[in-house]
Amino acid sequence: MAPPTSVLLPTVEWTDACDEVAAQLRGDDELLVVCDADDDPVANRESLPPGVRVVVAGEPAGCSGKANAVAAGMEARRHDRVVWTDDDFAHPDGWLAALHDDYAEHGPVSELPFFVGRDPLSVLLEPTYALGGTLGTYTGGKAWAGAVTFDADDVDEAALCRDLRRTVSDDGLLSERLDVTPLRRVRRVAVGGSLPETLERHARFSQIAFRHEPRGMTAGLAVSVAVALLCVLFPLPALVATTAAAAALYAFFGVRRWTVLLAYPSAVVTPPLFLYGLARRTFVWGGRRYRWRSLFDVDVVDGGVD
To answer: pLDDT value at position 191?
Structure first.
């Protein structure tokens, strides 16, 4: 029997994910819906399901809104078993119970994201996201904040909450502090919607990778440049090789998407987009603009342009 659990779900609006997770709570479990301000729509919801509480984190200062919300949720939780999740993917029946079963077998565990594009650029980048976001999380032993569970004594909680309030990436930081077993189980996460949104997300992804693993990011960028050059110099064999590699990757994670056919053009555009993301002085996430100078040096910028 899994112990009572606190599920943290940052969001400013009540979404389908809130209903899905609330329906899976048992007994003393709780769902903490963490928003930014008292005037957020979810903070003024008239009725909440049993076991659900709204936590108002306040405006972030020196960190991202997401990291600030997770820190507030950690401090407000009642139980030692913790689950972090997001509101941008489906939580099927049995999702929470499966995480508990996996914890009993492996200790701290994390599921994997598979990013599904909603605009032409994010669709084109799906094979790149599958390589970095899905395979990279799996082989690198990283945590994905969309679906990760651990006990309070698995991590230095005080240090984690302190550092969440001075950085950008919640899962990037958790991956450094928690020994986690990634499961070969993916959740499809819709991303993008417009070209500006996808460019902002790509800038954030690039800078998260660089801030948390500068050597790995440098090596990955060098490899992506080499692959892109091979694609340009030897287009036909490169087309076959990249498509076959992407097909094997998708199959490994049980994903069927026609975007596997975009592996070749995705490989060509990846290096300049990564360089673009690293060159950006600011990026937008969740309606806020951030300037991220170093891992623990973050400014929340009001407006402005790069």
So the answer is: 96
